[in-house]
Amino acid sequence: MNENVDTQMNFGTTSRRLRLETLVRLRWLAVAGQTMTLIIVSLVLQFPMPVLAVAILIGTLAIVNFILQVAFPSTQRLEPIWTFAILALDLLQMTGLLFITGGLSNPFAPLICVPVIITFASQPLRHAMALMVLALICISSLAFTPYRLPWYADYIDRGGPVMLVAIWCSIVSMSTFAAFYAYRVSKEANLLADALTATELVLQKEKHLSQLDGLAAAAAHELGTPLATISVVAKEMEREFGKDPRLSEDLQLLRSQSERCRDILKQLTTLSSEGDEHMRTLPLSSLIEEVIAPHREFGIKLTVLEPSGREGEPVGSRNPGILYGLGNLIENALDYAKDQVTVTVEHDHRHVTITIDDDGEGFTPDILLRIGEPYVTSRKSDARAGGLGLGLFIAKTLLERSGAHLKFENRAGPTPGAPVLGASVVVRWPRKAMETPIK
Questions:
Q1: What is the pTM of this model?
Q2: What is residue 195's predicted lDDT score, i.e. its pLDDT?
Q3: What's the rounded mean pLDDT across residues 181-202?
């Protein structure tokens, strides 16, 4: 089941696109910051600096940004290649400013890593790596600038080459670390968002299936009136033209078929009204039977144990999330069992517990630590049982939404150091979460 979800629900997380308006606003912020710095350094502090060249670079960025804002709508989403081009231009503009204002000795030099971080947080890896390479070239070029840092005239820089190398290493390290961190966080956030979207789609599908009886009743009600009209007209036509040998047989067929349709609709209406309560609520034993019924013909022995019996069992509302989640766990147990899967159902006045055990080889330690995360899809030959990937994430999410707590573990042997007896999944609800109050 989880493999089907993995293959059918591919949301394309690598095709993310930034809105142009986002980049335009960030660039206006950069223009404002650079302009403010130019004014303070040249007019307030009166440090010597190439004012005209700096103003041209800032003006170029402002003009390009204005053209982008006017030429394209604010909702425009950029292809990765165009996002790369815009951020590469920002990187080159920043490099130019730093190059003519002291290079790596400029205290604003670390800002050169900002375009790289944005790219790693929002774009495909190949474009991000290309911008990283360009950034490394730009950072390295700043070490060879012939221009001095705008500072006091009597200042003597005693750092020398060693300090330049240290600053270079610092900026490169910061760019690499920040970019990697942004990429990992962004990737995990997008995977989680896609997995939750898949969860909502699965739950919506299950709800639609549960509502088919209501749709049948609605269809029967809507079709009843026109069908009654057809039946009345058919009877009138049969009374009027029934003796005509050319029409009598057709009229009898028309009336009989209209009556047959009326009987079918009556059955649908009766089924919905009589079975509505049965369809809306389920005793715990019936819920378990409905879950495991589709999985009995897998060639693996499927046993249900009820130590608490059925007397006083909870009766709850039909929950598509619980049906899907338990079904997914049982199917995964069947996939990795050798001969048998045991489902143990227990209940008392406080809790309802369902334990799913198989006789496979259990979870490997690394998988056991990450189980339940979305897109954990590597199934090794020794990683038996338990269900991995997006399907298990959906099942776990749906069951937890219903109030359940899940525990995944391996069943230990009778003696220390004995082989694992199989995997075990324990699903426990507070009884009130599984029970419909009596009205």
A1: 0.53
A2: 66
A3: 73
Q: Across residues 307-335, what is the average pLDDT?
A: 87
Q: What would the 3-class secondary structure string for the chain be?
A: CHHHHHHHCCCCHHHCCCEHHHHHHHHHHHHHHHHHHHHHHHHHCCCCCCHHHHHHHHHHHHHHHHHHHHHCCCCCECCHHHHHHHHHHHHHHHHHHHHCCCHHHCCCHHHHHHHHHHHHHHCCHHHHHHHHHHHHHHHHHHCCCCCCCCCCCCCCCCCHHHHHHHHHHHHHHHHHHHHHHHHHHHHHHHHHHHHHHHHHHHHHHHHHHHCHHHHHHHHHHHHHHHHHHHHHHHHHHHHHHCCCCCCHHHHHHHHHHHHHHHHHHHHHHHHHHHHHHHHHEEEHHHHHHHHHHHHCCCCCEEEEECCCCCCCCCEEECCHHHHHHHHHHHHHHHHHCCCEEEEEEEECCCEEEEEEEECCCCCCHHHHHHCCCCCCCCCCCCCCCCCCCHHHHHHHHHHHHCCCEEEEEEECCCCCCCCCCEEEEEEEEEHHHHCCCCC
Residue 378 has pLDDT above 90, yes or no: no
So what's the pLDDT on residue 320? 81
- Interatomic CA distance for residues 399 and 426, integer angstroms: 11
The C-alpha atoms of residue 343 and residue 45 are separated, in whole angstroms, by: 78
167: tokens are 């600053």
Instruction: Please say if the pLDDT value at position 9 is more than 60.
Output: no
Per-residue pLDDT tens over the stretch 77-123: 888 899 999 999 999 999 999 999 989 989 899 999 999 999 988 88
Instruction: Check whether 385 has a pLDDT greater than 70.
Output: no
Averaged confidence pLDDT in the chain = 80
Say which CATH architecture domain 296-434 belongs to: 2-Layer Sandwich (3.30)
Give first-to-last CA distance, the chain, whole Å: 37
